[in-house]
Protein 1
Amino acid sequence: MAVPGFWCRVYSGDCRFLQEVGFVMIDALRNVLYLLSNALLPPTLLSIILLAAWTAILIGGIVREWMTRGQVRRMLLQIREASRGAAMDRRIAWKNAGLRQMPGGS
């Protein structure tokens, strides 16, 4: 940043005018930055809200997958317990476990 005394020596004039111009430019720059930041605030907040909602949906999917895997694990334990003892056919073990249909459609 230039020293105001430098401009006074070059133009041998009054430095008050240059200082006033500098203050006006700083105020104009401040106003432009204020307007720009206010213009960008709503889209930024909207995108943050949308990303938070998307994150909640993905977390819900992870929880659903975790619960489904627990159900499958319990079902397989039931099948294993139902088929213990004798060498039974898979369909009989599946039926004894209280399940409707075997995976694979048979």
Protein 2
Amino acid sequence: MMDHNQQTFDHARIGEERVMQQHQDTSATPLLLTMDQVMKKLQLGRNKVYQLISREGFPVQRFGRAIRFDPDAVEAWLKARNGNQ
């Protein structure tokens, strides 16, 4: 039979594991992508991504000077672009 201290420790450990799992779940799929993430995923340079934004309507979210990309919008844009070529 477990003593009270062991039960308390086990409950704290289980709670900590749940918090870590929730953190991993949310951090694994960011809501928006950074420029570096988009560059890596598309295997393009920064200048090319900026060209796509200014000349071809590549979807972007601006927060002041910060630029972020919605992964779903990027995927939809790529599918539409491939259909037009």
Protein 3
Amino acid sequence: MKLLDSCFLDPETGKELRFVTNTDHLGAKTIADLYKESWQIELFFKWIKQNLRVKTFLGTSKNVVLTQIWIALCVSPAGLPEVQDQNRPFHATDAPAVAAQYL
């Protein structure tokens, strides 16, 4: 397998980002953007595991994962920062709006 060293200078921070990839048809900025997006996904699942007490997922299909997240959101209102900041108790009708922010 051929590996390529891809460098990208982040205009916001001025830092040079280096990625090792086997994808030779994408530019350095695209690779950096993909990495940034994948990191946001990692942070989202870390938040789920820490706040919704979901330690493992019961399957890998989109439907299974979304259903398990939905159930965890419905039964774990204490883990939702948006709800904790409000001066009223969590209500089941809050779940769709809160879930939409994360899914």
